[in-house]
Write a structure and sequence with these properties.
The structure is a single chain. This protein is α/β, with parallel strands linked by helices. It is 59% helix and 13% strand. It folds into two domains: 139 residues, 3-Layer(aba) Sandwich (Rossmann fold); 193 residues, P-loop containing nucleotide triphosphate hydrolases (Rossmann fold), CATH 3.40.50.300. It has 16 helices and ten strands. The strands form two sheets. The chain has a five-stranded parallel sheet, with helices on both faces. A five-stranded parallel sheet has the order 7-8-6-9-10, with helices on both faces. The longest helix has 25 residues. The chain starts with a strand and ends with a helix.
Amino acid sequence: MLNIALFGPPGAGKGTQSEMLIEKYKLFYISTGDILRKEIKEKSKLGLEAQSIIASGGLVSDEIIVQIIEKTIKENQESKGFLFDGFPRTYVQAYILEGLMIKLNTSLNCLISLEVEEEESVQRLLNRGKTSGRSDDSEDVIRNRLKEYHNKTLPVLKYYKDRGIYHSINGLNTIEQVHDEICEILQDELSKNLLNIVLFGYPGSGRGSQGMALAKKFGLQYVATGKMLEQEIENKTETGKRIQELYENGDLVPDEIVVQLIEQKIEKAKDIKGFIFKGFPRTLVQSYILDGLLKKNNSSISEIIDIEVPTLELISRLDARSKTDRCMPYDDSTEKIVKRLQEHENKTIPVIEKYSQTHNIKKIDGMGSFEEVFERLSTEIEQEFRKI
């Protein structure tokens, strides 16, 4: 999803650029003025509240505006992203938008500011006034609007400069030159869009073999904590020696070690389309850790898939595997198998429930042949790729 805020003083050409960007990138245009008028026209609860405030000469509060913006975003999830015009208008609104984006499991990719000197803005608006007939295109009104814009906007621009997502463009260039510069910025942002999938499923659901096959097909980096820990032991690293000692003592590997290995994997990955996580997060604590790791790298979870297999089938599969050379130490008895399934129920199901509040978790039928399940999963991932 591509979310951008377009800034610029009156007369900078935001309207023209917005139309071109919306068409090219299939974005949904959000102007606080437009969506307020829409809610008022539809006589929605929020619209009636806003109308009452405006009728009494007051300013519509941030509380109402943010609710209308959230409603608009939720109603237009099919869009490839959102273009914000005129919001955030104040430093406080910048924080509001940040919190709203987090709630909706997305973020603002960049703020693009069209820079135009005051005298140029005045001249452009005066020329527009000659043909538009707009009463607010007189010089005194124009200069007051520009003064208000600069007073309110400077703190907002600083906020986004500090976050490192502010981009300044010379608005004196031609429409085509400005558009090309904006598109260059947006193409760079789009190249950062990674497809990050968390693959859930009870032990025996096939998530390991499916995860590896999916990673290979779609150019994703497969991240499985078990394999990473085994690799450290095999490479005889200092971390590997510590892990081996923990295993021998029957202790669990602490999150501190797991997190460091995943962090290294993410930071070292180059020229990939994203990650597929298997076996992590396994607990609620780890779910917050993963969110933080991805956020640190300007990314987030794209999709969560849960492979569903009936309990008796899970036990049957794990029991059958225990009689082969693929037998794992934790699968060599029915007692251990049941214990693993209970552990997943107690620790991992709450993680899925937590994510269900912020994501539309995809439930995939894990019954049938490997190829049949793989086809179902592939279809789901292909749909997600099209979104980004």
